[in-house]
Structure formats: C-alpha cells, structure tokens
Amino acid sequence: MTTTIDTAETKTFAAETSRVLQLMIHALYTNRDIFLRELISNASDACDKLRYESQSNNGLMGDEPDLKIHIAYDEKAKTLTIADTGIGMNREDLIAHLGTIAKSGTSEFLSQMTGDASKDVNLIGQFGVGFYSAFMVADRVTVESRKAGEKQAWQWDSDGLGTYEIKPAAARARGTSITLHMKKDAKEYLDRHKLGHIVSTYSDHISFPITLTDEEGVTHNLNDGSAIWTRPKSEVTDEQYHAFYRDVSHSPEKPWAVFHNKAEGKTEYTSLLFVPGIKPFDLFHPERKRRVKLYVKRVYITDEGVELVPPYLRFLRGVIDSADLPLNISRETLQKSPVLDKIRESVTSKVLGEFKKRAEKEPAEYAKFWDNFGAALKEGLCEANSPREKILEACRFYSSTSPEQLISLADYKSRMREGQEAIYFLTGDTLATLKNSPQLEGFTKRGIEVLLLTDHVDDFWPNVTQKFGELPFSSVTKSGADLEKFKLDDEAEQAEEKAESSDAVKKLCEVMEQLFGDAVSAVRTTRKLSDTPICLGVTEGAMDMRMERFLADHKQLPKRAAKLVEINPTHAIITSLANEVSAHGITSKTEDALWLLFDQALIAEGEPVTDAIAFSRRLGGFLAKGIAG
Three-class SS string for 479-502? Predict the structure, then answer.
C-alpha cells in the first residue's frame, strides 16, 4: 500500500549518498557519456522486473502492454528526459532507491576513494552508482513515477546538494521518467546524433526498444532490440561484448575474458559471462553479492537469492538464460531446482576448463587474472562438493625455485626429485618473507621445490583438499617433513649424522626443554636448517602456526599451543652452546643466549616474543659485550 501524503516533503540524503553525489557533481568520470548508459540500464531493469512480475499478475500491464524506453530532449528548456514503461516506483521506493545507497560494502567503497580521478573512476564504476551519475551533467534532476498496479504517481526532485523533495504527482502512465536539467557545459547531450552515438556504443544490446524524439518531433529507433546472448557468437563484435559487459558490471574497463556458450541436450541454456579486468572492491566483503542474472526464455527472473555460480566464482558478471525452467517459477522453487543445479555444475565446469586453457596458452595474461581472483578461486578447494581437481588444474603458485613466475601443479610434479612423495608448501604473509624463511633451507639444499602461499585461504585448503592426484600436500613446518631420504654428499651427510648423535647436542635439547618450560612442547634436532641455528616447527597432525594465529586473533581458539623448537646441530652457535652446557652446565650467559635464540625463532615466524622487556635486556647485554670486546 502507498502512503497518502498531500504535501511536498523535504528529506536529507543519507550520509553515504551525499558523499557519492559530491563525487558525481565534481565529475570524477573522465567520460561523462556513461550517465546515459546508466540511466538506460536502470530503465531496462525496470522493464525486466515488470515482465517477470506480470507472469503471475497479468493485471500489472494494464492498458500499456509494451515495454520500452524513450529519450527526448528540449534545447530551449535545456532538458533531457529518459522514460520507461517498466515497474515504476511509489513513494517508499523513491526514498529507498534514490535517497539511500542500500548496498553492501558502501563504507569500504567510500574509504577507498582517493580524490584521484584516474583511480576513482574504476571504483565508482565497480560500485554501480547508476542513477546518481545523472548529476555529472545535470544541475537538477526530476523523477516522476507510477508503480504498476497503483494509481498514485509521485515526483522526486533534487539538485544533489544535500536534500531532495518528494510529493504526489499528477496522473501519468505506468513507469518512470527522469528529467535532467542540464549544466551549461553539458549542452552537447541535447543533440540527436550525440545521443544516438552513445546508445549505439553502450546500449545497443538492450533487449527493449529504445527510441528518441528529435527537435522536429520525429521518432528514431536507436538499438537492435535483441538480447545479445541469443545471437550467434560469429555475429557479435568485441565492441558489442564490451558494451554489454559495461552494462552488467557498471565498470568502464574491458573484461579480462568473455565466455559465450550455448548448451544443448538434456539441459538447454545460454550463458554469456565475463571475467572483470580489475578486482571488484567488494570481492571479499562479507555481504558481497554475485552478479550473474537468471533469464528464462529471455525473461529476466532474478540475480538475488539464487546460486547461479558457486561462491568462489562470484567475480563473474553476465547472464544465464534457461530454456527448461517455467517462466512463473518462484525464487523459493529456484533454490531447490535440479535444473538449476545442472546448469551451475555445467557452467562451473566450462569456466574452469577455460581458465586452464588460458593459463596454458597465455601464462602472462593468466597471471593478471590470478593476481585479481586466485584467492577467491582457491576458496572452492574448501567446499565439500566442488570439483577440486579441476580447480587445482586452474591454480597457479609461486615456489622456492620459481619466486617470480607462476607455475602449475603439473609443473611442480614434473620437477619433483626421485623418491619425493609429497607436494611441499609454506604459508606466510608475503613472498619476500617466505623466500628468506629458514624453513626452506634444508629443502633448498636438497633441491626440493616448495610452494610459497600468501593468501589467507592457503591456511585452510591444503588441510581440506589434502591431495593433487595421489600426491599429498605437506607443510614444511611439520616436524615429519622427511628429509633424511634425500641424501647430501658423503661429507655433509656424515657431519649431520655425527652432530645429531652428539651427546652434547642431546644434553642441550634437554636443557632447553627445562628452560623454556610450558612455552615449548619439545626441542629436537632437524635437517631442515642450513644457515640458521633454530626455528619453530609443528608436530604431525597439528595446525600450522599462521592458521593458529589467524584463529586465535578471531577468538576461535581458547589458547595457543606450545611451540616445537627445532635446532640445527651443525650450526656453529648450537655446537658452541652444546659444548658450553656440556662442560659447565647452564649459566646466566648461556641462559640468555638460549632465550635470545628462542625469541629470534618466534620473530622469524611472526609470533610475539615471550617477554619483550627481557628480550630487550638480553639483546642489549650481548651487543654491549660485542662492542666492548
């Protein structure tokens, strides 16, 4: 029901809306032509919604059965009007849609604005501000609308400077008309040829007729009027694909990839999907939405509440048009539809297959995609029913032997050492940190490649996915990462064996366990280290340190586990300390040295030191002795 209000009301824009309006008024877009694309896109959505709603309520169409978009301009009055015969809006809709930006990630979007037009243009485009782009060319915007099925029409009016007015309007046809009172520097948009060029460039794919009435009262058809995804690929140009992408993504750049497929057989559907060329600002926002629209026989159904693509492919933009679903299907029924399940499975398989092909044929281009969307794609490895093997085939990684160039798991497998039975990996915050990690030393010394993983999802998926083919994933931080089978030269091998069996080293391990107490679970020798005296490890079956830290930071763990300490028995510092403890027992000097080593190992893994004040005192003491000596 519409609230009946006889007088005009003046309302204040929501705070985030005012900020976006200010950005628009100052024309951060380098290409102002897009305002028309945005308004036509909104008009098309309004027509789509009415066409869908009318499937279950024929009365909504009333005496105007045609769905269309019309443009008119008046050079004398300096106005441009975009009108549609779509679903229309009542008072509540106008307030909700034009007075507030009710989108997830609004604060994040605004926080990323820099004031640099060249950078902010992409952010604004991704956010899809739509209607507000009108203020780039207009001093004032007037909206008149009547919602389908209702009698009362409403008018919304604003100069975009902080407030808007809303009031009842005179009787009018169903739908919405938006009148722009043009700025002095926007007169170029009051020209038939200019408007026609913009429509043909950006909106030719719109499936509703777009017409324009010129200054002489002649009406011109401006678009083809057929849904672009229904055309054969051979008849669609790159420019037309890009124009449609800009419409569905609200982003000005070209897509990274276009996937246009028609599936026939038991399940028939057409899909036209795009991979963005830049990362959407809300890719990892908790309230993110997928932006693939569902059509049934070219009738728009929905793009909300239905999983057309899995969450890890949420960056895809475009449409899926089914020939097998009924037009009057409800959103509740869609959520349980076996037809939709088959479409989602088929689309996912095709997209992952395309990723694999592109990665193999154009590795440099694929690296750009991976930088933007690799972390999201790897989320699929954590899902129970996802095609993990296909996802892994599309995954790319940096490694200890390839820290500058991405490799596939097939590449890794082809370079494995004879006798190697696992794919080794190491997680961390940055590539620079991982490349210098002491955890790699023993592996590097033996010519064993280690994957370097820096995304948060990398803390989880190896534990869920577990294998690539028959090869298990194994973290190098696990104490069971077996290096003994990979022999060094005789002299180095004998030195390691001798050091490990040394009574002095064994005694040192016992002393360190007593000294560190509950802070450690055990102290052991390791062949993992080469140039470093000490590191932290993880026992078999325990979680990696970075994953533990992540869960603890998010209050998902009651307490942190005690650390496993691994020492390098061949390192000069360790052998010296072992001999000192063996000869004289624990002294204040050796105690300080051992605590410094332990804190050094904690720092190397990004862990907090046990006692910052004591650490500072001990370090200062050793520095003083070194300088004085």
Answer: CCCCCCCCCCCHHHHHHHHHHHCC
Amino acid identity of residue 240, one-letter, is Q
Q: What is the rounded distance in angstroms from the CA atom of residue 517 to the CA atom of residue 283?
A: 44
- Cβ-count burial 336-374 (b if 16+ within 10 Å, e if not): ebebbebbbebbbeebbebbbebbeeeeeebeebbebbb
Among the four given CATH numbers 3.30.230.80, 3.60.9.10, 3.40.50.410, 3.60.15.10, the one describing domain 230-355:
3.30.230.80
> pLDDT, tens digit, for every residue of 71-96?
999 999 999 999 999 999 999 999 88
Domain ranges of the chain: 9-225, 230-355, 397-629
Nearest to 149 by CA among 43, 57, 52: 57
Whether 1 shows a pLDDT value over 50: the answer reads no
- H/E stretch holding 70: strand 69-74
Check: CB of residue 394 under 8 Å from CB of residue 406: no
CA quadruple 28, 32, 37, 39: dihedral positive or negative? positive
* Phi, psi of 277, rounded to the nearest 5 degrees: -85, -15
| Strands (E) located in 314-397 | 317-322
pLDDT per residue over 397-437, tens digit each? Answer: 999 999 999 999 999 999 999 989 999 999 998 999 999 99
Q: How many CB atoms lie within 10 A of CB 315?
A: 21
Class of domain 9-225: alpha beta
pLDDT level of residue 143 (50, 70, 90 thresholds):
very high
Contact 420, 450 (CB under 8 A): no
Report the pLDDT value the prediction gives residue 102, as an integer from 0 to 100: 44
- Whether the per-residue pLDDT at 328 is higher than 70: the answer is no
In whole angstroms, what is the distance from residue 277 CA to residue 254 CA? Answer: 6
